[in-house]
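Throughout this chapter, every protein is written as a compact record of paired, labelled lines. An example of such a record is reproduced below:
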Amino acid sequence: MTADAYITSNEKTLSGVLTLVMHLLFFALLVFGATWQQRQPEAVVVDLWNNLPPLPAPKPALEVKPPPAPKVEPKPVVKPDIAFKEKKEKERKAREQEAAEKKKRQEDLARVAALKQQQAKEAEAKRLAREQDEALRKLAAQQAAAQVKLIDEYKRRIAERIKRFIIEPPNLQGNPEVEFDVVLLPGGEVLGVKLKKGSTIVAWDNAVERAILKAQPLPLPPDPSLFKDFRELNLKFRPKE
């Protein structure tokens, strides 16, 4: 870089003026010197260059400082044995966490299995109870049907036995119906006979009453618990049935 780069515009103007003055002086001196040499040939020529004013010193260039570099903190140096211990500790904690999670999963599965087993047991118990109740109902229905059948059978036997002792009055017309209420004892003996509805034929009504008394003891079922159904009987008779 040249020195002119550090000179201001004023300084350049001043330098130009001085240079012009210097040339004019130099030209005048030449003319004067030529004239002087013609008059005095031995005169000494003056070196005008030594009287020129010194040029101003160039200003130093501005120093541009680079930005400061960021401070880099040095990383801590981890010793190999410490790093190894830390790695082992992490692996141990990872194994413990995995084992704990596995144990929890197993416990959850065990609880679910136990719950399902309990629900299955309860469902089986309810099913067995329903089946047992159904079986009991069926048995009770069968027993009731059997009792009704047995009761009807012995009532039929009682009626058949009494009919064997009925002596029909002569010249009996039609098919008159007579109805009696009969009270029995546990052994089949007749405790009482009461005409509930006559047939309008007294001879037929009396013949049936005598047959009831002659037919005792009347047949009863062997189960004493059924006697309640024979204590009081309602019997109806027709000569042609």
Notes: The longest strand covers residues 190-197. Residues 3-51 form one domain. The first helix runs from residue 9 to 39.
